[in-house]
């Protein structure tokens, strides 16, 4: 039995990726792990007073998002594991893939409500390629 | 938009800016202003652009600007005395220390208050009270955000409530934007209600030496009034979302919300609430002692620190010094503009434009900051506009009642609602939504923000004309 690591956030745009990862895990009989990376770098430009632990807030929100994903998996008969890490997506994905010894990393290809890609296609492909080179693990964009 | 188009637009903007600056400098030279006139404008515009276009951290931009002002004075001044403009000693007189210490005191309060878990508890109570009614829940969350923004700080309110609101929206089965966008708009409106709610409010209130109560009497009514059209527009714009909310909520998600909704430190909550109530009482009675708001905030913070006895290293680590440095930098940069005569020159031009008409001047003071705040940073804008309000208030008959200052606050605070770049709470909320997997585009924010901004600015203008 293999291990699939699916990096996800939440929202409509991520649902398809989650569903595809769930279907893949079911088809292959693999273990499914959802990963959420809490990244507070969006606050890097503001001088507004940040006196609360923003990362802790994001971690809690991430846990909630993964609970939603876990419920979706459970509804399809898959018992998924969840992990929340703090930091940058690339570094945390690499770290999680190595620590967990996964066989496949699944990345989302989210689209917005107008079916337009949220991320640049070429950039996503390049990201997947570099991730595969660094971790030595297969990477699939679903 | 394609990058090449953005570059072309950027280049055109830079050319227009350079041409405008050249014309301005020529005009100023004709009127006998020295080279520091143009240099101080250049420094301000670069800092302003760096902040508004997010080239770098706001604090870094403001600090660089302040350093540039001093370097021009000392290094440039050694080469040519005409370049001497603002020395370090003089620049400190332009820093409003009441603003700096008021923000510092409130940050200590906020840091301790947020550790009690009270906000999660309140949001979950709202969820329970609404009994699955998505519209009612939205109303409560929006009003709660407005209230917290008035008494804490708008960005803190957003950081505390938006993650919870996203989770609550997912639990009741509606799109989180239906809660988050109105909450952000409410935060900017609520921030105008008190002296401590929003930076423009704090800056203008402190400049006028207003007490908490004096400010509250003038601004709270219009802030509350502006919440009414916001709630009405929210109901109208999200009626489909609210009506399509699923009746059945996931027990696992509710259990998760409930698990996070407990008071984490009851003793701290009691102490914070007691000192907070005493501080609020001092704010309300501060007039009697002639105490500036900064002293009141620091008194409360000092008592709280002495009573709670937190790890002081940790406590001081939690104070966001970048905010304080940012304000000091902006005050110095604008001080450079004032010292070189730019502000009085611009003020006299606006004064000529307004003539002796107080009504026209008030309309200008609401709508210029109102429109500008949507696209440029409203803190440096307010600091720079303040001496202009001083000039106009001193020269236009009838303006001594302070109407132009209220106009400036309302324009800067309410105008920030039109785009997601308009104010810090907007930018923070967009980031939080993205972290939850919900992309909020510039246009999507404007769809909600522009109508609310227009309606509230019209309301604010009418209020000023009738009230003053």
Characterise this structure:
The complex is a heterodimer of chains A (142) and B (468). With 142 residues, chain A is an alpha/beta fold. Helices cover 47% and strands 19% of the residues of chain A. Chain A has four helices and five strands; from the N terminus they run βαβαβαβαβ. In chain A, strands 3-2-1-4-5 form a five-stranded parallel sheet, with helices on both faces. Chain B has a domain at 98-321. With 468 residues, chain B is mainly α. Classes of the chains: A alpha/beta (142), B mainly alpha (468). The A-B interface holds A 8-14, 38-39, 42-52, 54, 57-58, 60-65, 67-68, 71, 110, 112, 118 and B 54, 56-59, 62, 103, 106-107, 110-111, 114, 153, 155-156, 159-160, 163, 166-167, 170, 175-176, 250, 252-253, 256-257, 260, 318-320, 322-323, 325-327, 424-425, 427-428, 430-432, 434-439.
Key terms:
heterodimer; A: 142 residues; alpha/beta; Rossmann fold; 5-stranded parallel sheet; 4 helices; globular; B: 468 residues; mainly alpha; 23 helices
Spell out the blueprint of helices and strands.
The complex is a heterodimer of chains A (about 140) and B (about 475).
Chain A: E1 3-7, H1 11-28, E2 31-38, H2 54-75, E3 81-86, H3 89-100, E4 104-107, H4 121-135, E5 138-141
Parallel strand pairs in A: 1-2, 1-4, 2-3, 4-5
Chain B: H1 3-30, H2 35-52, H3 58-79, H4 88-94, H5 97-114, H6 118-130, H7 134-151, H8 154-172, H9 177-191, H10 199-207, H11 212-237, H12 239-244, H13 251-259, H14 266-289, H15 293-308, H16 312-318, H17 321-339, H18 342-354, H19 358-372, H20 378-395, H21 403-415, H22 424-435, H23 442-467
CATH fold assignment of chain A: Rossmann fold
Taking the alpha carbons of the first and last residues of chain B, their distance comes to 45 Å
Q: The biggest beta sheet of chain A, please? A: 5 strands, parallel
Full CATH superfamily name of chain A:
HUPs
Alpha plus pi helix count of chain B: 23
CATH class placement of chain A: Alpha Beta
**Averaged pLDDT of chain A:** 86
Which consecutive residue ranges of chain A, at least 5 long each, have pLDDT under 50? Answer: none
* Helix-residue proportion of chain A: 40-55%
SSE sequence of chain B, one letter per element: HHHHHHHHHHHHHHHHHHHHHHH
Mean pLDDT of chain B: 88
Number of strands of chain A: 5
**Oligomeric form:** heterodimer
Termini distance of chain A? 20 Å
Radius of gyration of chain B: 23 Å
């Amino acid at each position: 039995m293999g291990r699939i690591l699916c990096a996800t956030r939440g929202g409509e745009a991520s649902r398809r990726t989650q569903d595809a990862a769930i279907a893949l895990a079911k088809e292959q009989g693999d273990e499914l792990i959802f990963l959420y990376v809490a990244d507070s770098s969006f606050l890097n430009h503001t001088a507004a007073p940040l006196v609360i632990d923003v990362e802790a807030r994001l971690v809690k929100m991430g846990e909630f998002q993964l609970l939603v994903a876990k419920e979706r998996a459970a509804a399809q008969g898959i018992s998924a594991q969840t992990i929340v890490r703090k930091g940058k997506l690339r570094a945390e994905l690499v770290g999680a893939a190595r620590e967990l010894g996964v066989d496949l990393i699944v990345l989302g290809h989210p689209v917005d409500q107008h079916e337009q890609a949220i991320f640049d296609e070429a950039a996503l492909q390049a990201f997947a390629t570099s991730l595969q080179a660094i971790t030595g693990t297969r990477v699939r964009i679903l | 938009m394609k990058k090449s188009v953005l570059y072309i637009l950027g280049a055109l903007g830079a050319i227009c800016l350079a041409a405008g600056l050249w014309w301005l400098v020529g005009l100023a030279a004709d009127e006998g202003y020295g080279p520091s006139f143009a240099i101080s404008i250049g420094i301000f515009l670069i800092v302003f652009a760096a902040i508004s276009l997010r080239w770098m951290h706001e604090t870094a931009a403001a600090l660089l600007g302040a350093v540039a002002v001093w370097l021009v004075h000392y290094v440039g001044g050694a080469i040519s005395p005409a370049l001497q403009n603002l020395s370090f000693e003089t620049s400190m007189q332009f820093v409003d220390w009441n603003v700096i210490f008021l923000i510092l005191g409130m940050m200590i309060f906020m840091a301790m208050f947020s550790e009690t878990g009270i906000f999660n508890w309140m949001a979950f109570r709202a969820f329970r009270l609404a009994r699955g009614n998505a519209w009612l829940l939205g109303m409560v969350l929006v009003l709660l955000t407005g209230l917290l923004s008035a008494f804490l700080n708008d960005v803190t309110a957003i950081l505390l409530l938006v993650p919870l609101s996203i989770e609550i929206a997912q639990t009741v089965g509606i799109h989180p934007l239906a809660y988050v966008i109105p909450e952000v708009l409410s935060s900017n409106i609520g921030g105008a209600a008190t002296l401590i709610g929003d930076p423009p409010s704090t800056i203008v209130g402190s400049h006028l030496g207003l007490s908490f109560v004096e400010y509250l009497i003038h601004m709270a009514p219009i802030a509350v009034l502006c919440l009414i059209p916001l709630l009405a527009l929210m109901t109208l714009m999200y009626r489909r979302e609210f009506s399509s909310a699923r009746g059945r909520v996931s027990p696992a998600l509710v259990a998760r919300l409930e698990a996070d909704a407990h008071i984490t430190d009851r003793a701290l909550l009691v102490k914070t609430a007691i000192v907070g109530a005493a501080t609020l009482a001092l704010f309300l009675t501060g007039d009697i002692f002639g105490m500036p708001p900064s002293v009141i905030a620091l008194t409360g913070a000092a008592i709280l620190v002495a009573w709670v006895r937190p790890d002081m290293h940790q406590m001081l680590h939690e104070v966001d010094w970048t905010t304080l440095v940012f304000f000091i930098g902006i005050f110095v940069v604008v001080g450079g503009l004032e010292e070189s005569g730019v502000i009085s020159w611009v003020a006299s031009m606006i004064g000529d434009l307004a003539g002796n008409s107080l009504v026209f001047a008030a309309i200008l003071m609401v709508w210029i900051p109102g429109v500008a705040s949507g696209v440029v940073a409203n803190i440096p804008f307010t600091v720079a506009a303040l001496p202009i309000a001083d000039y106009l208030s001193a020269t236009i008959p009838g303006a001594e009642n302070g109407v132009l200052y209220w106009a400036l606050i309302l324009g800067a605070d309410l105008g920030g609602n039109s785009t997601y770049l308009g104010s810090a709470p907007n930018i923070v909320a967009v980031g939080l939504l993205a972290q939850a997997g919900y992309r909020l585009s510039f246009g999507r924010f404007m769809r909600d923000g522009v109508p609310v901004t227009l309606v509230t600015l019209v309301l604010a203008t009418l209020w000023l004309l009738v009230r003053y």
